[in-house]
Amino acid sequence: MTLWSASDAAAATGGYSTTDWQATGVSIDTRTLQAGDLFVALKAARDGHEFVAKALENGAAAALVSYIPDGVAETAPLLIVDDVLMGLEALGRAARARSSARVVAVTGSVGKTSTKEMLRQVLGAQGKTHAAEASYNNHWGVPLTLARMPVDTEFAVIEIGMNHPGEIAPLSRMARPDVAMITTVAAAHLEAFDNIQGIALEKASIFEGLEPGGVAVINADLETSMILLEKARTAGARIVPFGAQSESFTLKGVTLADDITVVQAQVLGGPMLFKIMTAGRHFAMNGLGVLAVVDALGADLGLAAIELSNWVPPPGRGTRETVLLDTADEDLTIDLIDDAFNANPTSMAAALEVLAASAPRDGVGRVSKGRRVAILGDMLELGPDEVALHSDIARSRHIEALDEIHCVGPLMRHFWQALPERRRGKWVETAEELADRVHRVIDAGDVVLVKGSKGSRVSLVVDALRRAGRMPRQHKRDS
């Protein structure tokens, strides 16, 4: 199915097409490009124009460029524009304008991608749904997601992120959401903001792009909720709060088990019970917010609540799996919780609660008692209070339920030093050091959490744990 014709793309961007072509997709990377894609020659670590010839050789329908690159014929299928990023943005706006889809935009300090994937799951059961396959939430990710949106899309979910002030509003105005959701506001990217109130104001700027009559779905349980509510009112939005402090989508209770979250809620005046097949209080809150979004879109709440039980977290965001340590004995396994994609104090507390609620297995390893083991990497971009924010994690009430805590990175050393000695495992400067010896600090029967900011590279420890056994497999769940 044609996504962009040469004439439509030229009209959208104000560019010039050298030939008549038709594209079935849009790509910015020759490594993942599919035949028929329009290749967008963005400038990042390298200039995308260097890869145009390769993209065309690999079957690209055309390339969006600002000049004809060396080694590319003047007769090659090209869409020539003044600026490639601006051209991609124009395609995104044009895709939004031609679509009758109901659009949801999601932001928040924690849980954006997981919530986007929940929405993809529940809305996908009720209509043709479009969302980015990865965490494409920045200045090129949002227009790319929009530019890839098929004309017949019924629901679109757009994730919007930020690192600095002033990033969210322009992306929201490009997406023009019918519903905008804020998952939470937490101490993340504090190095770019004076305080958490500044983060709340930036997150709330997502409401500036709402369509007339649009809906703001807001976490009601935050210290900054009033800031979010005021910004939504200023934008003229209809406000739907969710959480324990909400009267319409009210969180009544959360029960965590090894790999399940049972949520008791009151929704629009009636009781509702739903399950999420992975553990996490934060998943319960985001699931409730998803139901508020579904209702705002006019979709079926009951079907959405059922469909939430089919959702699993994206890789690195709390996914749970069993790793077999010895192929000769199927009992010699660990449960691995991979939460190594990102971290801040709020998400760290949530991950520790999940680990504390997990049940290790006794009598199967070198140590007779199964253990709850945490491997924690630095939380980055926290600003001038980063040392105190790391140390304060040691005050978590969930620490007492853990058996051993290993730490990676100079910032996590402060947390490690604040721990009771009986909980301290190893501290190392780099993830590579722990990855090399991680097989020595785990045992069959353990539940092992790996959590840290992406820049801490604790994902290397996850990889090493998977290599500790030859047969990683998805954690089995009961329906």
TrEMBL record:
Keywords: ATP-binding, Cell cycle, Cell division, Cell shape, Cell wall biogenesis/degradation, Cytoplasm, Ligase, Nucleotide-binding, Peptidoglycan synthesis
Top-level taxon of the source organism: Bacteria
UniProt-annotated binding residues for ATP: G108, S109, V110, G111, K112, T113, S114
EC numbers: 6.3.2.10
Pathway: Cell wall biogenesis; peptidoglycan biosynthesis
Catalytically driven reaction(s): D-alanyl-D-alanine + UDP-N-acetyl-alpha-D-muramoyl-L-alanyl-gamma-D-glutamyl-meso-2,6-diaminopimelate + ATP = UDP-N-acetyl-alpha-D-muramoyl-L-alanyl-gamma-D-glutamyl-meso-2,6-diaminopimeloyl-D-alanyl-D-alanine + ADP + phosphate + H(+)
Mur ligase central domain sequence ranges: 106-294
Purpose of the protein: Involved in cell wall formation. Catalyzes the final step in the synthesis of UDP-N-acetylmuramoyl-pentapeptide, the precursor of murein.
Family affiliation: Belongs to the MurCDEF family. MurF subfamily.
Protein's UniProt name: UDP-N-acetylmuramoyl-tripeptide--D-alanyl-D-alanine ligase
Native organism: Roseovarius litorisediminis
